[in-house]
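Intended use. Records such as the Holin entry shown here are meant for training and evaluating sequence-to-structure methods. They are not intended to support clinical decisions.
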Amino acid sequence: MKRLLILLGQVAFFIVISIIMNALVSILDWKIPGSLLGMFVVFLLLQCKVLRLEWIETGASWLLAELLLFFIPPSVGIVSYQSLMLHEGIQIFLVIAFGTAFVMICSGLVAQSISKRKEHTRS
């Protein structure tokens, strides 16, 4: 039961960060996704040692394990907008491809940084 509460608390942390960053992006009228800004903020908090990896690791691992479920609603939405896909499909595909590549690169850099930090603290 304790592990479940810890998991829920950590997932709630990520949800709160996402909500706050989406609101900030909306208020400041920035053209980047709030979730990407949230990932950057969490990275900065980890780098500045304000946030310890152990405090969020279980929730982050669970969210990564369930990542496929987060892509189902957008896939279903594409079917509803076939005419848009016919006219703007290539542009949409390019934005998705470059966005995915950017997120993968950022995630890889964050993972490498965390891995190096863990190795450094173990030595």
